């Protein structure tokens, strides 16, 4: 989507989008814009309302914001208008930027408008959104120069659109090899290095926990390593490591799922968030070095699948007793984290995964679960999440929970077997593989990466984590 800044609507014909803060239902002063007056009896800016008016070959779409509005709500409103009012859009569309708007509000609005072009019907014949026409240019009506903010907003939405597609496409399309190819294509386009370890390379490296998970699938596992380095020299360059769970489909393995399997294409949403974040970080040219690993595999069922009670060995040599083959995400993350620490030694590490139903039971669908023993990292992640509407809430990592992963036959076991504290015991399992790293955090996003909202009839991706991870890195 291209944009052009204008300072007046002279000779304009088309649709003008006008965000309006709430006045009062009984106000005697009408909302006025370009000589048009809207009585408060019909519209006064109440949140989630809109009003359509026409005058002199211009369609005016007034958008209610309420009295105050946060980043996420504003972005959602803009996305709604873009998705559901597109029939009102002609060849020319202008966005009026209110004087009260700050740069974050401009960013949220433009980003939301572009996100509204997303359509879940990837295999249906659908009309293309007007904003996606190569000749389309959104005109920004403002007396201030917001070009840098708008450019950033478009890059954010572009990365999130890619992430939505990766998660929503079916598992016969998005295989581990598909994700590896995606990373290589985007690395070439946006400027980050990609190294992919296939089956034989992973065997040579000794990525035993990762390989165990993929044994039952005909789709070869792919261990994707991405590295972004700023083009310019940066004094005291910080180095961040990311790890994302890339399970392209999760049957549960031999501990086969008895419910909800139809949605398990979403089990790579953590990995997709890392992919999207890498695209965005490189697109924004952030002055931070980032190394990201996404272990991509399919947890399937056949004669070669790993078994409950197997003992396997991880990359760092830890022996793991398999209690439940459906606790596979923590196994691929364990090898990803160990490999990252040994070979790249980042100062900060964040892993992200749709890991446990327990996190959903604890926090519902409003925020992700955060685990870390580093209070500075905790604060920065929560602040980043709050600022872009991707919230996190910290849960404990107390040593008393270590008993949940103790095994009689191996160093650790992959599942406690208990119906309680599942998200915490999974986090304790991952902590075991961090080599006591001083700045590691684990994000369990099972409740927020895939779900229901107004933009589709079925459950679908949210792109949670792309902006959060990027904002966190940007603010270090």
From TrEMBL:
<keyword id="KW-0378">Hydrolase</keyword>
<comment type="similarity">
    <text>Belongs to the peptidase M17 family.</text>
</comment>
<dbReference type="GO" id="GO:0005737">
    <property type="term" value="C:cytoplasm"/>
</dbReference>
<dbReference type="Pfam" id="PF00883">
    <property type="entry name" value="Peptidase_M17"/>
</dbReference>
<dbReference type="InterPro" id="IPR011356">
    <property type="entry name" value="Leucine_aapep/pepB"/>
</dbReference>
<dbReference type="GO" id="GO:0006508">
    <property type="term" value="P:proteolysis"/>
</dbReference>
<dbReference type="InterPro" id="IPR043472">
    <property type="entry name" value="Macro_dom-like"/>
</dbReference>
<dbReference type="InterPro" id="IPR000819">
    <property type="entry name" value="Peptidase_M17_C"/>
</dbReference>
<keyword id="KW-0031">Aminopeptidase</keyword>
<keyword id="KW-0645">Protease</keyword>
<protein>
    <submittedName>
        <fullName>Leucyl aminopeptidase</fullName>
    </submittedName>
</protein>
<keyword id="KW-0464">Manganese</keyword>
<feature type="domain" description="Cytosol aminopeptidase">
    <location>
        <begin position="165"/>
        <end position="469"/>
    </location>
</feature>
<dbReference type="GO" id="GO:0070006">
    <property type="term" value="F:metalloaminopeptidase activity"/>
</dbReference>
<dbReference type="GO" id="GO:0030145">
    <property type="term" value="F:manganese ion binding"/>
</dbReference>
């Amino acid at each position: 989507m291209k944009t052009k800044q204008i300072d007046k609507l002279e000779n304009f014909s088309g649709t003008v989008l006008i965000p309006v803060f709430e006045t009062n239902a009984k106000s005697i002063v009408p909302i006025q814009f370009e000589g048009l007056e809207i009585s408060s009896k019909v519209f006064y800016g109440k949140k989630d309302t809109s009003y359509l008016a026409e005058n002199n070959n211009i369609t005016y779409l007034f958008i209610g914001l309420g009295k105050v509005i946060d980043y996420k709500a504003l972005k959602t409103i803009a996305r709604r208008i873009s998705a559901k009012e597109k029939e009102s859009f002609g060849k020319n569309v202008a966005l009026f930027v209110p004087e009260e708007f700050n740069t974050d509000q401009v960013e949220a609005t433009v980003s939301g408008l572009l996100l509204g072009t997303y359509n879940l019907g990837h295999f249906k014949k659908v009309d293309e959104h007007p904003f996606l026409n190569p000749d389309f240019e959104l005109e920004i009506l403002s007396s201030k120069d917001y070009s840098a903010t708008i450019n950033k907003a478009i890059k954010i939405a572009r990365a999130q659109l890619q992430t939505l597609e990766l998660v929503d496409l079916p598992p016969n399309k998005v295989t581990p090899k598909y994700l590896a190819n995606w990373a290589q294509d985007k690395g070439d386009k946006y400027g980050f290095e990609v190294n992919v370890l296939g089956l034989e390379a992973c065997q040579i490296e000794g990525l035993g926990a990762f390989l165990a998970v993929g044994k039952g699938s005909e789709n070869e596992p792919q261990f994707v390593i991405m590295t972004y380095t700023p083009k310019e020299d940066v004094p005291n360059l910080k180095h961040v490591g990311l790890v994302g769970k890339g399970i392209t489909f999760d049957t549960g393995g031999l501990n086969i799922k008895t419910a909800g399997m139809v949605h398990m294409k979403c089990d790579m949403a953590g990995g997709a968030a890392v992919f999207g974040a890498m695209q965005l970080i490189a697109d924004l040219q952030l002055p931070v070095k980032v190394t990201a690993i996404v272990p991509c595999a399919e947890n399937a069922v056949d004669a070669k699948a790993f078994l409950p009670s197997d003992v396997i060995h991880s990359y760092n040599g830890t022996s793991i007793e398999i209690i439940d083959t459906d606790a596979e995400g923590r196994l691929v993350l364990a090898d990803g984290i160990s490999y990252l620490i040994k070979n790249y030694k980042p100062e900060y590490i964040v892993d992200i995964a749709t890991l446990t139903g327990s996190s959903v039971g604890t926090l519902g669908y409003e925020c992700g679960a955060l685990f870390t023993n580093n209070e500075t990292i905790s604060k920065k992640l929560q602040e980043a999440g709050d600022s872009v509407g991707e919230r996190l809430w910290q849960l404990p990592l107390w040593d008393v929970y270590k008993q949940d992963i103790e095994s009689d036959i191996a160093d650790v076991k992959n599942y406690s077997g208990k119906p309680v504290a599942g998200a915490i015991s999974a986090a304790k399992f991952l902590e075991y593989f961090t080599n006591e790293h001083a700045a590691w955090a684990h994000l369990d996003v099972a409740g927020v990466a895939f779900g229901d909202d107004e933009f589709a009839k079925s459950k679908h991706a949210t792109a949670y984590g792309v902006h959060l991870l990027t904002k966190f890195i940007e603010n270090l």
